[in-house]
């Protein structure tokens, strides 16, 4: 059973390893979604504004960008989460989900309507170092895909909803459709929510 099992949504201190309370951490418990325990990306990992990225190459991981980095996650107080506690949280969980929003200008995120393919789909690196995308992970779905036509501004919201708990959180992302002067993209990283 996941850690969140109270009655009203809000922030709560949890101690998944049930040891010393000194390593407990604060999470958001979402009871409108069945009792999810959520952690958030840190301020430097929660997203970037839309830009043309002229000095970067398509097919590169965000962590390789000049202004890029590995995505990090913190508790509700902005503090790092102890890895032992994170391991126990995963052990107490049956599934987890995380959304990733891609903001585009004439750039594909998932499905490319012009070629009816997913050849330029985003690729994600999971916490377990597993590379995930359309071609190898059935747990990623497009909730909305407003970037598939490459016309004007839009957004694509992808959701990783997985029983493979070690895949989350997403720690890096590869962008494959940019580089032309008229193409731009930005993104928002959503919280990771664990469900018992």
From TrEMBL:
Keywords noted in UniProt: Collagen, Secreted
Principal subcellular localisation of the protein: secreted
Protein name: Fibrillar collagen NC1 domain-containing protein
Pfam families: COLFI
Transmembrane segments: none
GO molecular-function terms, A-Z: extracellular matrix structural constituent
Source organism (scientific name): Oryzias melastigma (Marine medaka)
Coiled-coil segments on the chain, per record: none
């Amino acid at each position: 059973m996941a850690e969140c099992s109270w009655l009203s949504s809000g922030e709560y201190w949890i101690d998944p390893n049930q040891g010393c309370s000194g390593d407990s951490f604060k999470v958001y418990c979402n009871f409108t979604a069945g009792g999810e325990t959520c952690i958030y990306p840190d301020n430097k990992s929660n997203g970037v504004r839309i830009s043309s990225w002229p000095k970067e190459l398509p097919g590169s991981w965000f962590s390789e960008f000049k202004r890029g980095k590995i995505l990090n996650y913190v508790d509700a107080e902005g503090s790092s989460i102890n890895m032992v506690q994170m391991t126990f949280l995963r052990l107490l969980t049956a599934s987890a989900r995380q959304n990733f929003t891609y903001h585009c200008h004439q750039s594909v995120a998932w499905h490319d309507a012009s070629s009816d393919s997913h050849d330029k789909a985003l690729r994600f690196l999971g916490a377990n170092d597993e590379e995930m995308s359309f071609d190898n992970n059935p747990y990623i779905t497009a909730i909305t895909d407003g970037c598939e036509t490459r016309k004007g501004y839009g957004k694509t919201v992808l959701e990783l909803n997985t029983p493979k708990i070690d895949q989350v959180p997403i720690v890096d992302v590869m962008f494959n459709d940019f580089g032309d002067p008229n193409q731009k993209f930005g993104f928002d990283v959503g919280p990771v929510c664990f469900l018992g």
